[in-house]
Each structure stands twice: as structure tokens, then as C-alpha cells.
Amino acid sequence: MAGNTYGQLFRITTFGESHGRAIGLILDGCPAGLQIDEAFVQEELARRRPGQSKIVTQRKEADKVEFLSGVFEGATTGTPISMVIYNADARSKDYSHIANKFRPSHADFTYHAKWGRRDYRGGGRSSARETAARVAGGAIAKLLLRQYGIDIKAYVTQVGHLKLDKSYQELNLQLTESNPVRCPDPEMAGQMEAYIKEVRKAGDTVGGVVSAVITGCPPGLGEPAFDKLHADLAKAMLSINACKGFEYGSGFDGVSMRGSEHNDVFRTEGDRIVTDTNHSGGVQGGISNGMDIYFRLAFKPVATIVPAQDSVNEAGEKVTVEGKGRHDPCVVPRAVPIVEAMAALTLADHLLRQRTARV
Amino acid sequence: MAGNTYGQLFRITTFGESHGRAIGLILDGCPAGLQIDEAFVQEELARRRPGQSKIVTQRKEADKVEFLSGVFEGATTGTPISMVIYNADARSKDYSHIANKFRPSHADFTYHAKWGRRDYRGGGRSSARETAARVAGGAIAKLLLRQYGIDIKAYVTQVGHLKLDKSYQELNLQLTESNPVRCPDPEMAGQMEAYIKEVRKAGDTVGGVVSAVITGCPPGLGEPAFDKLHADLAKAMLSINACKGFEYGSGFDGVSMRGSEHNDVFRTEGDRIVTDTNHSGGVQGGISNGMDIYFRLAFKPVATIVPAQDSVNEAGEKVTVEGKGRHDPCVVPRAVPIVEAMAALTLADHLLRQRTARV
Amino acid sequence: MAGNTYGQLFRITTFGESHGRAIGLILDGCPAGLQIDEAFVQEELARRRPGQSKIVTQRKEADKVEFLSGVFEGATTGTPISMVIYNADARSKDYSHIANKFRPSHADFTYHAKWGRRDYRGGGRSSARETAARVAGGAIAKLLLRQYGIDIKAYVTQVGHLKLDKSYQELNLQLTESNPVRCPDPEMAGQMEAYIKEVRKAGDTVGGVVSAVITGCPPGLGEPAFDKLHADLAKAMLSINACKGFEYGSGFDGVSMRGSEHNDVFRTEGDRIVTDTNHSGGVQGGISNGMDIYFRLAFKPVATIVPAQDSVNEAGEKVTVEGKGRHDPCVVPRAVPIVEAMAALTLADHLLRQRTARV
Amino acid sequence: MAGNTYGQLFRITTFGESHGRAIGLILDGCPAGLQIDEAFVQEELARRRPGQSKIVTQRKEADKVEFLSGVFEGATTGTPISMVIYNADARSKDYSHIANKFRPSHADFTYHAKWGRRDYRGGGRSSARETAARVAGGAIAKLLLRQYGIDIKAYVTQVGHLKLDKSYQELNLQLTESNPVRCPDPEMAGQMEAYIKEVRKAGDTVGGVVSAVITGCPPGLGEPAFDKLHADLAKAMLSINACKGFEYGSGFDGVSMRGSEHNDVFRTEGDRIVTDTNHSGGVQGGISNGMDIYFRLAFKPVATIVPAQDSVNEAGEKVTVEGKGRHDPCVVPRAVPIVEAMAALTLADHLLRQRTARV
């Protein structure tokens, strides 16, 4: 069944395989009258694109986006916005050697089990290349959110064992883009970069953590029961390739706290109602309370490694798999813009949904 | 906008407030011909119901479910199944003292911010009472999954600082229901129970962790891109009241591993393709691979506590809030059947979706 | 797959079988703060209920609706509104004689073909009894639309060969409820009533036409491409039992017109843009233009008749079927409130959707 | 809100404006393993394309479709299929004269009312050019249906006052494509063609009727309550530009029949259960019964005419509008493949939905 759509009112449907002709999306439900800054969309794609630094995959893709519809005289018209990114550096021959093999911890086996066939070139649709479409759609969402003063910032807080133990308030998030790791602490960023290079030299990969904070979100976004704001964020984040965990607010650490210390006491600040502590992470009962929304995401090490690994092929025979394709030694630097995009899409959707809450 | 529906093909819509007339659900999309064991549905509800032990809320609810439609001569007909549970012990007067106050870390403020009004009695729709409807629907999902040999078991692995550091393979999950905490390690269960009682005596609350494992899931369930099996599980779990985090497979611990140790190598076992390790947690590329699916959930301490707390009311004035309503000192024992229900609903939905994968 | 839900943002899901325990619905997405006039909901149900006159089925149902959730202190809270109507006069024994027979032109055979089983009592879910739930939900929609000055009026314009050849402008629609046929022309109503009685006496049934007009609809409701306002109206209407056709505006008669006579020329009237003619039927390009929306619906003769008919049973054997159950000799008088309800649900949904059209 | 998607499981989302860069679609949910005959898709587009004969618009578009994803080694992979058709002959200057004018009976005014702006070039998204995307998606649906022996044939039965009063059984539908009108009666086709030419010469337009029949549909397709097979067909058809009415089976003529003559009596034919008459039009209770499904559609005269017409502009000032753009004098010949496409999409969707009906 169709599973390539995200969002209810602000809704993207993505398409495309890693080494197919193109990837892209339709964004349906974007309100009319939004000025589209195409250069901004392209900049966001540049943050995700391969080859941007020495610690990411060296596949060469300009990721030039073309708008096919929905924008007229510089602004959205209310009709579907289609964007396409043609694949340039699709070296399909790179992958012929694994055409009928199942690479360990990749989606080769599960795609085959589901559909009885698959586009094996570069992982086909299971490749993180699909996320470029999300970043393009997310950029439009960001432009909408900007009008409401909502800002989203993601950044790297862990690479392998190297963990940055600071809250977002203790960091200068303006520094995130100052280094290829996208860690806002320059010293830690240097260590992380050195470590990623060491891992890459060993032909290996390593995992990491991306943290994120949403500021300026008004109270009232999110729905009761199932479509809680943080539940939708969780789904959005876990839908990103290699993501293995999500926690918001006090998260897993909060379980050992008592209610009396965990509760966020309300007080008035001017005409706003605020809390001093924010263990709730900006969401209570599934609905935003106006405080900062923050969360953390676990990313596993990339499955593609250079050393030979045992596996099986479609016939169930034992085979050896070697990592010849280009790949990232650590996914988190490039995950940062993707996390922001998925958060932006989620917020934009709930922003529109909120408009129907009252008579 | 409507946010009270979960699932695409096996779809529940729940209704009801904590102290309203009734709670219930419509389950639409359940295949015809499923034998309905009403006693089993009632047993599942008994596992969630208040008053079942001394460490849970003492609200008195039999939670007797009535089937209103969709079942004929003991089996489903393919038409919507409606179930209703009338509220019995709805002491609305208990709540009049907080009618216009915002209890700290409850949904009072956010509901008010969203809709400009709310049913304040016992938290209205934000109460975990709504989850009884999920358990009823989840019981039907379990009956369907049983036919496919799919089994779901949740259990408590942490209460406050008391953490059970054993994997599901090291535990006897048959023991989960042998104690009121629902921890499958009887010794640890005893400590946890004592701790919960101590916390309750102090008028306080504490958080915990629920772990879960799904066995017997065939390969091929889940969709690419957004509707990944684990992404839907994440949303399902985070939609449960008080849940703050989700991780599956290697989760947050996996981030410090290298690809060479994290990868799950395939081999053949009889006519099945399996892996020795299972850091993937039974899901690769968003689709089940036939191995066990396991995950962990963080639950925060319940917000209702006995000691007086500062807060504000609807007018923004400073007020004091005291916890008079009945409540759970720790949510995890009763969360166990809810976690299972949401997992069952997710699996049942993807089981049906998988039927359309091939020509 | 689940097919018992109508609407995107203002969304009802109905349940129930003709002779089951109850029928009912969940309305999700109704904005908060709508005053609920329960007496009005009950009046609407009275217009649809059996036994209201001598020309409709004599089944005895008070159709007393109970609100189970979503309404607090007389107004909606934004949470799901559940309503239930318990079946009173469910004479299941009436139907045992057709338990395994397929009544001609009923849904017995197709339900059996689809699901391999069915609740055969009174047609089970295929009975028009299900539409009581629609009328209850539609009444809430009407209350919402009333706030926007939108009014919907349906009425009977044909029974068998007796056709009322007048446009809605030539009729006094206040007279619709003055007679049991619900035809706003009293003389024609008398003829129709006599004819229905004659048909009933013969143990037979006859079809008819319901016309409807929506006034006060603002410009801008409806979506391009698939969710055109009139396309959603068409689906809504064809989903009513026994409905065989839908036309709006100039409809089938318009096909023989030329563009030069069919086009509706715009002009200004105060600060409104209006048209003199209205062949468009108030909708252009799928979106309302502010003029009256009008349409006509064909209803076939009810399939249940008294004389014996040949048919087959589940085993494919030849059998005889006799109409013992209570039934309507002509469906259109009771279809009037159902048509209004489905139109109201459609308009309410598009009213909310329109709120997200612009930045 | 997003309204550019059709279908639940076999789901298309279209994009594009008449004079934008491209039109196209994403088809999500097509089962894996379907052989894709690209030449067939192109042939279907050729049946809809402008310039194919002297009685249709002379806009020059090859309507060459490009597959961007979802097809690998000649077959579908289960991932989204994206198709794009770049606009070639987009003479935007043709439309500058109506940039701020509202053409009578076009969507100019309603689009403006809804979004406060619009792409006025050639009607933008309201142009029937969007239907090329539907035909491309419908062609894939046809390929799927072909595997199940389901065939759909649409044809013209009325142009203006010229009406072909024959049922589909009395016609040789192989002749439909033998003439530019797509009327299967060659003599009537000749008269219709002459009439269309006469109307065009007068700078005018005329309406018509398209009839259609679906053969080979198995029993069991369609859902109860709202998603009745014929209700979805009605929506699909009314979503086609200029369509004003839909009737199936006995339709509007059936209203004057009595139940005793309208009922379709069941009998056995080999191991199938069939009916002799088919007033039901192949659908009973919203679900297919295995007999032919047939329906008729009213199309209004095209709004674009050559003679000057009065109208107003965005400022509400009186203006004159002249039809300079290329347009069809009668829409029905080109509507035939569109009707088939929408029927095919509807059937394919319900075919997949039916797979989840039973345990």
C-alpha cells in the first residue's frame, strides 16, 4: 500500500531511486501566497548533498532542483508544487556485483521479501538519496514557518563514543554550520571530525546522535489521542534512514525522576503563560505549550563498510559482500538538514490543522 | 482537525472523556471471518483497568465492554466493530476545584490554548482512560495476529532508578503477569513494588521503562519512506500518555558501535534467511526481516501528585493546585497492555497492507 | 478496507446493522465552541425515522440519540463526538426465512460474495437504517453551517411518473414539510401520496427524484482536480441507499446547449460578483462561486416487494423469496433529510478545508 | 487542503498547470511485478492529446511521457511511479489579455476567490490539460486490470441534440476509435462530426454524453456505507472537467419503474450467479455483483467561445472577454479516454482493497 506520503494538510509525496532517472516530490496543501525563495531551497539541499566535505560520501551530485508547478510569479498558488532533481552521477555499474546478494543490515533482503524484486542499484528506493526530496519540501515548510516566527535547529551531539554533554541553552547554535560535522562546539567538532576520518580510513563506519530544538512554536499545535505533536515528530524522525531512537523533553533520563521534580510549574510572564523548567519538552498532552520543543535522535552506523562480509544471495547461498559503492562513514552530519526538514514538515502540517480547531 | 484515528486499513477511531458518559471506539477494516473471543477482550481490559492492585489508581471501573456492531454469530462480518465502555465511577465533583486551574505538566493549559475550552473533569480526553478503547481494539488485533503466529509481549524493565539489565532472551516473559509491577524478574519486581509504594506514600510519582518484543512476524511488513514499520511503531508508542522516548534494536546504545560490529550477517537456517545478531531489531529499511522486533519506551512520572504546587488559572493568576483525584503512582504496570495493544494495531495494519504489495 | 468514514476534516465514521444492538457514529474534527442543540438533532432524526406517516415503513423506532462524548456544558470541545441510537424494534425473526437466500436487487449476494458471510437480518449493514447515523452527524454539520448563513433544502420532485416540473425558484420550499411526501407543491404532493398508497396496496414499490438547493455558500469552497465540491457532493449522494444518479446545475439537459447560451455572465451587485443565469449550479472549476448550488438525485424503486420472486440461495439452488419485512413503498420522502445531511457534511468539510487555503 | 490525490491504495497525485513547465503525477501503491508497456501508456495519451483531429483543440503537444521512477527492468517494483510530461506548446502570451479578467463559466473567478491569486495562463490548474496525468496513471491501472480480465470501454452517445439511443449491447464498441467523435455508430458519428464542425465555425461550443461499460469485474468490489463502488465512480467522473451528471444502471429513467419490474432476478449459470436483467448496473449495495457495470455522463459545452462576452475583472469593473486561446468545440471525443482512465483507477483501487476483506 502507498506509504510514500507524509502529512495531512501540508503533505509531501516523494518518489525516486538512488540510481534511477530522478528523485522528487509533490507538495500538496501549501497555502497560496507564500513567497518562494528558490535560492534558499537550493541552499538547504546543499547542506544535505554528497561531496560537500571530506567526511561524507564522494558521490557527485549538484542536487539542482527544478520547480515544475505550483509557483507563479514567485509565490505559491495553492496548487501542488512539484520539484524534481535529476540524478547525475548514477554509476549503476558499481552495483552489478551485488545484484542478487543481500548486503548485511541493508534493505536488500527485506525489499526482496516484500516485493519479490527490487532495484538493487545503490539501494534503490531504500537509499538515503530519497531524503533530498524531503529537504526540498522541508525548505518550503521552513519558509511558511518563518512567517510565524518558528525556527528549527538541529545539530550533532554525539559521534561514536564522543558525546557533547551540553544542553542547547549552553551552546551557540550559530556555530553548527561552521564545521563539517555540524557540532556547535568547535573543539568537540574537531575531535569528532578526526574520529570520523580515522573510522573511514579503517573502511568502517560509526553512529551518532542528532539533537534539535524548535523555538517560537505557539501553544495549541498537535492533536489529542493519536496525532500528538511529539508522536508525529517521532514518526517523522524514525522515518529517516538509520534512525533508531527518539526522545523528547526529559526522555529516557526522565524515567528516574519523581513527579515532584519533573513537573513544570506554570507562571505568568507578561501576557504569556510559561514554565521555568521544561522537562515536558514544549509538549503537554500532545499539544505544544509555547515553550521550546527539543528532542534527540539515535543514528546507527552506516551498513556499508569496506571489509568483506559473509552473507547470502537470493538463492540462499553463502556469498561474500564487499563495499565498493561510495558511502558516508558517519551519517549524522548530513542528517542534520534532514531532521530539520522533517520537523518543519510536521510543524507546518500541525500549524494548518490548528486553523480548524475552533468555530 | 480529526486526530483520533490510528491505522490505515485496520483502523480504530476512539472517543470519550474520563468523566463523560462513556468511552469507546469504532474498529473499521477488520477482515471478515475472525472469531471473536469476547472473554479475551475483557481479560485484556482487566489488565489495564484501575483498581487491579494496590500500586495503581483506586478508581473503580469494571471496564465492561459492549459490542454494538460488526460481530454476528461469533465472528466478524467485515463491517465496523463498535465497542463501548460506560463510565461508572465518574466522581466529577472531585475535579471542580481545578475547573479553571492549569495543573502543572498536565494537558489543562494546552487543551485550553488549543480550543478555548475543555472538559476539565479528570483531564477529560487527555486522561489515560482513553487507552481502554485502544486495549479493546488491540485485543481484536491480537486475535488476528494469533492466526499468523505473531505474538507481542511487553513488560516493565525500569521503575525510577531500579533498572533490570537483562535482554528479553535472558528473561522468562511468562512471569510478567505474576506480579502487579509486570516485571518478569520476580526479585526485581519485588523491589520495584516496594519502591512504588514508598513513592506513593510520599504522595509522589515516578517514571519507568516498558520493553517489548514481537515474535513470529514474517518478513515483508512495513513500507518504504515514511510508513516504515518502526516509524509507525514509534508514533503508536509516543501516542501513549506519558511516553517520552522510543528506541528499537540497538537504539541509543548502538550509536557508539562501528558498522563492522553492528551489522547483522545473514545466513540460511533451513529455508529461512536469518541473522545471528539482531542489532537491527527485526526491521531493515523500514520492513520486517523475520527476526524478533524489540523496543524500549520511556515513561515520565505521572503529573498528579499530592503536595500543593504553584500554578496559574485561566485568568493568568497565581493559584495553588493540590492532587485530590485518584491516580497512579507509577504508570508502567498499566502501560504494559496498552503498549501491546498499540503494537498489535500497528502490526495488524501492516499485515493487511502487505497483501497489496504484489500483482 | 475501511470504507465507513466520510469527510477529511469534518469526518464521520458510522457503525451498526439494521437488527444489531445499536447504530451510531463518531464525528471527529468538529470545531470547539459550537453550541449543540440536542433537540434539533432529535428533530432531524424524526424527519428520517420510520413510522412517521402512512407512506413509509411501519417499523417502530423512536431513534432516540444519546451523546456519549465531545460535548461539555452544551458546546463542542474539539474532541470526538460519539452518538448512539439503540435499536428497539429489531424483529430478527422476520428475517430467518431469508437467512441463506439472496433477495433480488438487494445486497445479500454481493455482501456474501465479498465477505463470505453476512448479518442477514434486515439487510444488516446494507439497510438504510445506517443513514440515521448520517442524519445525526449531518445535524451537527447544519448547526455549524448555520453560523455561516449556509442553508440546505431538499425536497421531492418526482415519484414514479409524477414529475414536478418547476425550478426551486418557482416553489415555496417552506411547504416541503407540510405533507408526508415532502413535495413543496401541495397539489402534486397529494397526487404523489395517492400514487404511493396505490403502489403499496399492490405490494409494489416505486422510485423518485429528490432535488436540493444550497443557499448562502460563500465563494471559494472546493478543491481543484479530484476533490471538487460537486464531485464530493456526487459521491456523498450516490452513497445513499438506492441513489442511481446525480446531476447539478444544467446537468443532463445542459448537454444540448451551446456554450454561448450556457455560459453564466458575471456582473457586479454591490460588492459581490454574481451571475444572472446559473447553469453552473454554483460551482465553477470545482469551487463554489457564491451562487445557489442545486442538484437532482435519482432513486430507484425499493427492492423489497410483497409478491413472490424467483432467486437463488447460497448453494446456488433456485428458491422463492417473499417480502415479509417492513419496508418503504417509495424511498424519497425519507431520503430528503438524508440528502440534506450528506450535503451538510460535505459543505462543513469544505468550509474547514478552505481555512488552510491562504498563508 | 491537499485535494490532488485520488484513490486509497492505488493512489495518484497529479500536478501541473496548463502553461507551466510540466504536468505529471506520482502513482503510489501499484503492486510490484506488473510489466509496464510504455508504448501502451503513450497510446492512451495519444487518444487524449490535442491536435489529434480537426474537431479538437489545435494546441500542439506530443504529450511524451517520461518515467522517472518505480519501474526497473520493465516491471514495477512497488515503489512510487513518477511520470512527467513537459509542456511544449505553451503560448502564454495568448492569455495575457485575460490576466485579470474572469472568463464566464471558467474557474478564473473561483480560483481567485479561493486563493487570492492564480496562474491565469490557459486556466492554469483548472485546465483539462491536467487530465493527461490521469490518463497516464489510468493506463497503468488498465495494465493491472487486464491481468484480471477487467475491461473498460467508454464512447460518445450524444453531441448536442444528436442522441444515439442504443444500449451498449446493441453497439459494436470496436468501432469507437474508427472516427474522431468516438461514437461507435458510424452513421451517427458522421452526423455528430458535421455538427461539431458547424458549431466550431460559429465560434461556439456544444455539450455531449459519454457512456461507458466495464466488463469482467468480479463480484465483491466496493465497500459499504460511503465508499460504495458506484459512489467512488461518481466522484471520479464528476472530477473530470465539464462533467455535470452521472447515472449508472437504470439511472434517472429507473425512477418511474416499479420494484417488480426493476428488480434483477438471480439465477445460476454454470458456477456463476447471474441476473437476466441488469437495472442494477452491476452494483448492488455498493458492491459489484459480477454483471456489467455501465454508466452515463453529462458534459456541458466548453466555456471558451469566440464571440465577445461581458464579464468583470478582479476590480469588479465591467470588461469584455474574447476567446483567443485554442480550445475544443466539444469536449466529449477527448473525454472518452479520460473517463476510461478514471474508471480504471477506481477499479484498480477497489481491486486492491478487496484483498483485505477476509481473514
UniProtKB/TrEMBL annotation, chains A, B, C, D:
Residues where NADP(+) binds: R48, K54
Keyword vocabulary terms for this entry: Amino-acid biosynthesis, Aromatic amino acid biosynthesis, FAD, Flavoprotein, FMN, Lyase, NADP
GO cellular component: cytosol
Cofactors named for this entry: FMNH2
InterPro entries noted in UniProt: Chorismate_synth (IPR000453), Chorismate_synth_AroC_sf (IPR035904), Chorismate_synthase_CS (IPR020541)
Cofactor note: Reduced FMN (FMNH(2)).
GO biological process, one term: chorismate biosynthetic process
Pfam families given in the database record: Chorismate_synt
UniProt KW S-adenosyl-L-methionine keyword: no
Source organism superkingdom: Bacteria
Sequence positions that bind FMN: R125, S126, S127, N241, A242, G285, K300, P301, V302, A303, T304, R326
EC number: 4.2.3.5
Pathway membership: Metabolic intermediate biosynthesis; chorismate biosynthesis; chorismate from D-erythrose 4-phosphate and phosphoenolpyruvate: step 7/7
UniProt-listed Gene3D superfamilies: Chorismate synthase AroC
Catalytic activity reported: 5-O-(1-carboxyvinyl)-3-phosphoshikimate = chorismate + phosphate
Positions in coiled-coil regions: none
Transmembrane domains' residue ranges: none
SUPFAM superfamilies: Chorismate synthase, AroC
Key word Cell inner membrane present: no
Function, as annotated: This reaction introduces a second double bond into the aromatic ring system.
Quaternary context: Homotetramer.
Family the entry assigns: Belongs to the chorismate synthase family.
Protein's recorded name: Chorismate synthase
